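It is worth pausing here to work through a concrete case rather than discussing structure prediction in the abstract. The textbook approach is simple: state the sequence, then state the predicted structure, then interpret. We follow exactly that order.
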Amino acid sequence: MRKTLVFGMLSVLLLLVGGPRSALAETLSFPDGTTALGPMDIHRVKVVNEERLTIQITVDDLQRRHNRSASAWIDTDSDRRGPEYFIGSGLYDSDYQIARARDWRVVGSGPLACPIAQTLAFDRDVIRWTTGRACLGSYSTIRVSAETSWQGTKDFSPARQRFHPWVHRY
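Step two, the predicted structure:
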């Protein structure tokens, strides 16, 4: 009777907690509270921290035009100040890349030679990048800062050189 009771309590606890933490990933969506006038105003930044990292930026009016760009600064190390990686894209073609960063600047001899994918969903005004450990190494928590630019006007989310909260993978 005692073993059955303990087993039953553990089963209920696992159902409430959702299973082992190592199998869980976190998806957080951050609405942008500031407004920048123009088509590249950031409305939302979504971060999916699974086996592969996905960063999604929703803007006001995504169009395939010159003089528009989007980027994300990625922080994977809570012990180091600032981002370790930068993803940048001109939104008019397939020109996107990931590079190392330090002190909010791109560093190194050029883009990293590792897998990164970009999706531009013009019908939904969404920019999405996906990459993984081949680029970012071993990490369990990340945080991002997003930036868009068009004709000299910039928008930042959450703010210039500031990060959204940490997104965990358990």
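Step three, interpretation. The chain is about 10% helix and 45% strand. The domain at 21-168 is CATH 2.60.40 (Immunoglobulin-like).
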